[in-house]
Structures are given as structure tokens and as C-alpha cells.
């Protein structure tokens, strides 16, 4: 019985393991929308207006330019040669077709 009294039962208490990687990694922290907006505003360059040049606002004292009247262009009638060419092509094509039929007619007579 003396052996049993020496070994007293103890309840174990759970512990979080302490890994080495937990010490190396930086903690992650999510920035709020206000902090993000503040950072963006800090990145934007500040606007600074340049001084106004007074000479720009002064009205120039130039003499008024005289208005010249423009002349309207004269319209010329077109003289296109398309109809003349069409008639000429029609004449040559009829002459060529008449000649070809005569040649074919002669050839057909010779081959018989």
C-alpha cells in the first residue's frame, strides 16, 4: 500500500504549444477603413496653385482686321466621256462578235 500512496494522480492542464515559428512570424493586423483612407490621403501630393500672371488678363490693343468678302466659286458643267466609251465598246464588241461568228462558220464548213 505504501507504493500506491506515493503515486498520486494529478490532472493535466492543457497548454498552448510554443512553436519557434510563432516567434519569427510578424503578427497579422488588419487595418480599418479609416486608417487605409488616411494612408491614401497622405500619399496624394498636396495641391499648390501658382501665382497668376497679370499679363494674361490684359486685353491686347490690336487693330481690327478688315473683313474681306469671299467670292463664290463658279460651277462648271461636267463633260464625262463614259457614254461615248460605252457606245464605242458596244460597237467594238458587236464587230468582234460578228467576226467571230463568221470565222466559226467558215471553220465549221471547212471541217465538214
Give short descriptive properties of this protein:
TPX2 central domain-containing protein; TPX2_central_dom; 112 residues; 5 helices; mainly alpha; TPX2_fam; 0% strand
Strand composition percent: under 5%
**Bulk shape:** elongated
Structural class of the secondary elements?
mainly alpha
The helix/strand order is: HHHHH
Number of helices: 5
Percent helix, as a range, is 40-55%
Distance between the termini: 145 Å
Largest sheet: none
Instruction: Average the pLDDT over all residues and give the rounded result.
Output: 79
Sequence stretches where pLDDT stays below 50 over 5 or more residues:
none
Radius of gyration: 54 Å
The number of strands is 0
What does this structure look like?
The structure is a single chain. The protein has a domain at 84-112. It is built from 5 helices and no strands. The protein has helices at 2-6, 21-24, 33-43, 54-57, 82-111. The longest helix is centred in the last third of the chain and has 30 residues, at 82-111. It is elongated, with a radius of gyration of 54 Å. The termini are far apart. The mean pLDDT is 79. Pfam families: TPX2_importin. One of its GO terms (cellular component) is microtubule. Residues 10-97 form the TPX2 central domain.
Question: What is the structure about, briefly put?
Answer:
Pfam families: TPX2_importin. With 112 residues, the chain is mainly alpha-helical. The protein is built from five helices and no strands.
Amino acid at each position: 500500500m505504501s507504493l500506491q500512496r506515493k503515486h498520486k494522480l494529478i490532472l493535466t492542464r492543457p497548454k498552448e504549444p510554443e512553436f519557434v515559428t510563432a516567434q519569427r512570424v510578424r503578427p497579422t493586423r488588419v487595418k480599418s477603413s479609416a486608417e487605409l483612407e488616411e494612408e491614401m490621403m497622405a500619399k496624394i501630393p498636396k495641391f499648390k496653385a501658382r501665382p497668376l500672371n497679370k499679363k494674361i488678363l490684359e486685353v491686347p490693343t490690336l487693330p481690327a482686321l478688315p473683313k474681306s468678302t469671299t467670292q463664290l466659286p463658279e460651277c462648271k458643267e461636267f463633260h464625262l466621256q463614259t457614254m461615248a466609251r460605252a457606245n464605242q465598246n458596244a460597237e467594238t464588241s458587236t464587230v468582234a462578235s460578228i467576226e467571230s461568228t463568221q470565222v466559226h462558220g467558215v471553220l465549221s464548213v471547212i471541217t465538214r
